[in-house]
Each structure stands twice: as structure tokens, then as C-alpha cells.
Amino acid sequence: DSWKIYRSFDWGYNKPFSCGWWAVDYDGVVYRILELYGCNKTPNEGVKWTPPQVFAKIHEIETEHRWLKNKKIIGIADPAIWDAETGESIADVASKHQVYFQPGDNKRIPGWMQVHYRLQFDENGYARMYVFNNCKAFIRTMPLMMYSETHPEDLDTKLEDHCPDEVRYMCMSRPISPIIPV
User: Fold this and answer.
1) DSSP secondary structure string, 25-66?
2) Cα distance between residue 159 and residue 148, in whole Å
3) Per-residue pLDDT tens digits for 38-55
4) Helices and strands per DSSP (H, E), number in the chain
5) Alpha-carbon distance 6 to 135, whole Å?
6) Which of 168, 4, 95, 56 is nearest to 36 (CA)?
7) Measured between alpha carbons, how far is residue 82 from residues 11, 15, 79, 133, 182 in Å?
8) Residue 28 and residue 26: Cα distance in Å, rounded?
């Protein structure tokens, strides 16, 4: 009950949006406990929900789900949602639905390193990131990520990287050091 709860988010319309909820224990281990992935039955194709539809659903989940209701949720999102070039920003729409975010650190290579560090096993065989089996988008898309042929330290951005990007924002919000093998 007293663990911190985070929400990470990557916007998408034609491509999927991804929203993940995380619980953080007292040792800083993160647990992906729930997700909402805006993908239809075709991989990497978005459900084409408008921002009000997306954030109404997120708000509904956060007020009704037994793991989230009555919790203070810290939201982290791609800084691009604050772009108001075409009028109202996606972040503004989210706040109208009582879904609040702070800009995530979207540096790609340090972010992927943080994901790697979270998945490293310590000397007792424990990782610093765990994923509940109800998080199907994470389970399906994370293993598919491959490195770019032109930028070998980065992932290939042509892949279905929406959930992994949102995971990267979460990891960058609570950076950790790597485990140095003995």
C-alpha cells in the first residue's frame, strides 16, 4: 500500500499509444503492474483514439482499478506531448481529465542503458525490474527490439517501440547504477 506508483506514457494515434503503471518497492525495484496499449489486432497499428478518449480511459482505470484508486500517481511522459504548435497540447488535454505528467528524460542511449541495468541480475539472481503477466504489450514487444544498423547503440526506431519507449521514460525517471560483475 505504501509503495510509490508511477505512470509512464508514450503518445500514439496512427501508431499505438502506451501507458504503463509501475509500483516501486522500498529497494527501488520497479514492477510493471498494469498497462493500457492502444493497438488494434494488427501489430504497430494504433486504435486511433483521440486524446480525450485516451485520457478518459486512463482516468477511469486510475479511479476504479483496485491497485490504483486513491493512490497518488506520478506521471512521466514523452516531452513531445507538451507541443502546442497546432493548438492545445496533448498534455493540456490529459490535465483536463485529471491525468498529470511531468516531462520524461527522452535521451535514447542513456535510457536504453537504464533499461539494461534494470534487467541485470544481481549476485542473488534478482533483477531490478519485474513485469506482471497481464502486461501483454511489454511481453510481446520488448523481446522484438533490435539495435539500429546505422546507430548501433540505439534501437531501430522503425520497430514497434512505443511500449519500450514508455518503459525507457520510466527507467530514466529513477536512474540506477549498473551491477558490476565480481
Assistant:
1) -TT--EEEEEEEE-B-SSTT-B----HHHHHHHHHHHHHHST
2) 10
3) 999 899 999 999 999 999
4) 5, 6
5) 15
6) 56
7) 11, 18, 6, 32, 44
8) 6
17 is written with which cell numbers?
499509444
What does the alpha-carbon distance between residue 84 and residue 80 come to, in Å, rounded to a whole number?
9
Angle at 179 between CA 178 and CA 182, to 5 degrees: 145
Each residue's pLDDT tens digit, 61-106: 999 999 999 999 999 999 999 998 878 999 999 999 999 999 999 9
| Strand pairing category for 18-24 and 4-10 | antiparallel
Please name the amino acid found at residue 152.
Answer: P
Taking the CB of residue 118, how many other CB atoms lie within 10 A of it? Answer: 21
- Sign of the torsion formed by the C-alpha atoms of 154, 158, 159 and 162: positive
Question: Whose CA is closest to 176, among 110, 77, 103, 101?
Answer: 110
Q: Which of 120, 121, 141, 178 is nearest to 20 (CA)?
A: 141
Residue with cell 508511477: 6
Residue with cell 491497485: 67
Nearest to 41 by CA among 59, 65, 16, 64: 16
| Cβ atoms of residues 29 and 131 within 8 Å | no
